[in-house]
Each structure stands twice: as structure tokens, then as C-alpha cells.
Amino acid sequence: MPLVSPLSADHDSETKKLANFFNETLGFCPNSVLTMQHRPAISKAFINLNMAVMANEGRVSSALKRMIAWVSSNATGCRYCQAHAIRAAERYGAEQEQLDNIWEYRTHPSFNEAERAALDFSLAASQIPNAVDDTIKKRLYKYWNEGEIVEMLGVISLFGYLNRWNDSMGTSIEEGAVESGEQFLGKHGWEKGKHI
């Protein structure tokens, strides 16, 4: 049972309108956003930040952003966000081979070196203590420009917030996210955990 129960999608009309963004991303409005509605300023600010972070300004694709989110969520252990990130990666056109082998991104041939650099950055930035160092920086600059690095860190930071929010809340996971989690992550032991 979640720490705080989500409110109805109709609770705040402004949040409801902004939350249409998630219908494209996930196919539903996340329970995390419905819980944030207890303070509508938070739900609205979060959705606007999410839209800004996930906008594509450079070569960082929507699918790669969601894989960056998955690596970050996997590093912190948030099963709710792992399932949401892999579902969104699927919906935004990540290759089937990448979805099936996300756990092996460092060695699997479906990932190129630019993607590996981005995903290693996500892992390093999501750890405590933070592990971003000169080696990570050099690899990033080999493939990505400063604006693209800002986009990546925006995703990592957004999911840092979400990982803390959803794991602390024990947010109930939606059926669509469960399906994606079981399909792409289940073979490596993913389960709902406390997010029932």
C-alpha cells in the first residue's frame, strides 16, 4: 500500500490537461503524478519539467533518453521507474534487441559506443557517491556536445527525483508498466516489489 494514495485524474483540471503528455509516453497518467496532485503546484511543475527534459534539442533520441532513465533507475533500485522507463523506451522506438539486452548494454552489439558512453554516464551520475570523473567526461565529449550532455543529465536528474519519490511513496504500479517490466526485465529478476 502506498504511503500516500493517488487522487483521481480529475482532481485538478490543470494537472489533468498537462498530464496528456503521459498518454503518449506511457499510455496512461502515472500514479506518481496523481499522488503529486495533493499539492497541485508540485504536479504541474513536475510535468512541465518532464516535458522540458524529454524534448529533443539535439541528437539524443527519445528512446535513448528513456534508456538513460532505465540505467539511472536500475542503479538506484526503483522498480517502479525501471518499468516506466523501459515501457517508454519501447513506445519511443528503441530497437527490440536493445530492449531485450539493456542489462548488457556495455557488451551487446546492438549498442554503439556513443550510446554506451551515455549509459555509463547515467550509471556514474546515479551512484552515491557520484562517480562522474574525467574518464566519463572524455568519453562523453568524444560523441556528444555540451547541449546533449545537459539533456542527458536532465534525464538523470529527473529520474533521481522520481526514484526517490516512487520508492519512498511505494507508488502502486500500473498494469501497462508491469507488462513492460515483466517482458523486458523479468528474466533478470525484475518484480513489482513494494509497488503493488
Automatic annotation (TrEMBL):
Q: Which Pfam families match?
A: CMD
Q: Which organism is it from?
A: Snuella lapsa
Show where the Carboxymuconolactone decarboxylase-like domain sits: 40-120
Lineage: superkingdom = Bacteria
The protein's name is Carboxymuconolactone decarboxylase family protein
